[in-house]
Automatic annotation (TrEMBL):
Entry annotated with the keyword rRNA-binding: no
Keyword list, A-Z: Aminopeptidase, Hydrolase, Manganese, Protease
Family: Belongs to the peptidase M17 family.
InterPro entries in UniProt: Leucine_aapep/pepB, Macro_dom-like, Peptidase_M17_C, Peptidase_M17_N_1
Organism of provenance: Tsuneonella dongtanensis
Protein name: Peptidase B
Enzyme Commission (EC) number: 3.4.11.23
Top EC class, one word: hydrolase
Any one biological process term the GO annotation gives: proteolysis
Location of the Cytosol aminopeptidase domain: 308-315
Amino acid sequence: MSKTPELIQPDRGQAATAIHLVDKAGFADWAKTLTKGQRAALEAQKFDGSGYQVGIVPDGDGWFAVGGVANPDELSSWCMAKLAEALPEGTYRREGGEPGPALFGWQTAQYRFARYKDDDKPAGPRVLLTKDAKAIEPAVAEAQAAMKVATLVNTPAEDMGPAALEAEAEALAKAHKAKLSVTKGEALEREYPMVHAVGRAAAREHAPRLIHLTWGDEKHPVLAIVGKGVCFDSGGLDVKPAAGMLLMKKDMGGAAHALALAGLVMGAGLKVRLHLLIPAVENAIAGNAFRPGDVLKSRKGLTVEIGNTDAEGRLVLADALTRASEEKPDLILDFATLTGAARVALGPDLPALMARTDETAQALLDAGKANDDEVWRLPLPESYREYLKSDIAGINNSHTNGFAGASVAGLFLDKFVGDGIDWAHFDTFAWRPAAKPGRPKGGAALGLRATWHMLRSRYG
């Protein structure tokens, strides 16, 4: 992962290559300020100001860069990202303005996951200057959090199992002087029976556990963040087809988001009492795997009939949400790569948001829109609760009619959140199937910035 602090630096008048930002509508007028030779150079590069275009303009013994954007007066997180990807190593300064929100994409554009493969010719850092020194620290923190999600999700399951998630939480706790407790073995079976049941078939080195980090003044309002940590999902005895398993290293994407968000909360010193809970398991196949038709007892005491062992994420989240509710939190947020139905409905780029209160939902929607991290609200319809009825248990973990899969999964989780607690659930893909400027292919933080900016507004 790139060392992002060096990619954004305060502008103290040091030498830097200029970057001009233009849009297609204003390009012709801007080009009139150039020499004939400079215009010819841009024409040879077929530069016309279209979005994400990059041009190099000779200037005496040197050169400057020009980037095409939608609107030079209203920059987005991504409008300078293509420049950060395409320009050579060096230091750059936006001419005639500040980068503003583009500081984020400038950093994420230079992210590379190189744990297992070194680039043949690794590019040197492209440094961007800004006179707004106060913007640097938060921009770097956000970019580092997003890239942390990407790195955790990109790492294969053999190296990112439950123990590795525990190690990530331990490092986070050490960095912020937080307290970490981990429940395993017989204690896990007793206290978090569904977490244990889902993970018990995994090899010993990938044994299930409940990771619980606490931080902050106990007098402050409790914020609980819960992340689904299914480090690999075979589907269990309801085994997935081979194609369905190819990306299942990313099934711990909810835990990755939760860890990154917790780091932002603690790093900024928000006035909350933080509880981070990650049920970390591998949904494996073995003689002791839980079965379709089994009835599991939950931490809450509610019994759950297993309609499908591939609907395991909601089971481990249920025990974690029950534990979070015991703290009487002001707010619970959970992240999970939960349903294919959410992806069918919204595609890979839009996390599905479900929330109990309109106020919290709207705050998240607004924060996402303002920070280039849009989320989309789906309902929690009371009438669909009947889809989860069981003839022999308190609830079934999977419905069979195929309707409203994301919302029905949300309704299952809602049963395990305490009454009257403000709760929001993100069904996120945590993956980008194709690269875009500033957004590499692979693990992706989707919903992280929306949530972070909402929390800063609420508790900052």
